[in-house]
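Q: Structure tokens for this one, please.
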Amino acid sequence: MKRLFIICALMAFPAMRMMAAVDPNFYIYICFGQSNMEGNAQPEAIDKTGIDKRFRLLATCKFDSPSRNMGAWYKATPPLVSPNGGLGPTDYFGRMMCESLPDSIRIGVIPVAMGGSPIEMFDKDTYEQKMSQNPDEWWAILARNHYGGNPYGRIIEMAKKAQKVGVIKGILLHQGCSNNGDPNWPTMVKKIYNDMLTDLGLGTDTVPLFVGETLRQDQGGACYGHNTQVARMPSVVKNSYVVSSEGCPGNGTDPWHFNAFGYRKLGARYAGEALYTLKQHLPYFSFHDYMFSLNANATYDEATRTLTAKYTGVGQGIWTYPHLADWSDYKYLVIKLKEPADPAADVNIYKKSGIGCRETFNDRTTIVIDVHNAKYNSSTLNPAQVSKVVFRCPKGTKIVFDDVFLSNDEQYNPDPTSIRSAESIQNSELNTQNGADAVYDLNGRCIANSQFSTFNSQFKKRGLYIINGKKMIVK
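A: Here is the predicted structure, written as tokens:
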């Protein structure tokens, strides 16, 4: 009996070790579709660097350059999907997920896509008929060359392999041009989604579906009408989310594909929706150019974090959240600039509807907003329902950002009458107190403004004052 127990324990040990090998912090996403998911843009230098080592690719086919074997994990350097692909939304989906989640979380992707493929090629009950009817189509050739003629089967095969090391957290789809406007498309997608969940032993409540819009009409898109069908997905699949392609530019060459910048923007939006389902948010303030929306009068340089207004009008840089952001756990919004902006530059914080706060910079390099007491005219900001943040600078001027963040640190308390310490200072020393915004008397009245170089001409009386939140005795 004792020997039997030992044998059983030894037999169980490999299974226990296998179970222990599944990392609950390895979040894995299936990515499938046609050419936009395959990636149609040539990767640029920025796309090949700065990739977090936590972003991993499970190769679903063999690559020669770079050398990759099917079923092995690699650093997620483009191209991710196949040797025929390029930069696509999956690249920046993974990057933004890693940027937004704790360092303990890794992100893996399982991509299968063929340029021009109809949605039926991912239905396990229809792909064979579709292949036999269209053997010479480009997508049929890609399916045979890369996925053994069965793209759906390859997804399931690789996903089961991935489940041995991580947890499948969602499914990304970008497809539609080959089924443009088909009213049956949402139902076909639902069947494929349900089949995947069943074959992988997953539930609809834990694995959301993220469906991207096609290239919009104002960007030269020919299949923009299909976005009507994409918009129906949340009503057909309960746990599904639409990923907007608004402002994602086309490549200017054909009417179907985004350019590299468009893929970065679209990929980050896939991440925004995925993070929402994880009860996370995109970084509230991301200085990537694909995270800023600009009006026609503005340009933005990511390297220097500079928002510039052309001489034609006020320039606007906008952070818009895919879902309302909740700032209620924080006291202060802190905006730090590398240099003073135009005094009239300002920031506008929008609540669910309308402006909830407007703060003018007034030559300051540190702007602090008490988010629980912020107002615009008679409108009060609700910090639990922030929809967007808009920075504005007058024509011909610029805002050079250092950082923007939320804080509970009392050093940022914007109340000018909040006294945190007391110091003595000579009147002649006032012009050396760089960095102060203003001088207040004990009644909270501003008696000298932000430039200390002008204080000696404005402010001569000895007494007790408040400077940068500190009590100063001027002798």
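A few notes: The radius of gyration is 28 Å. The chain has three domains: 20-277, 289-412, 422-474.
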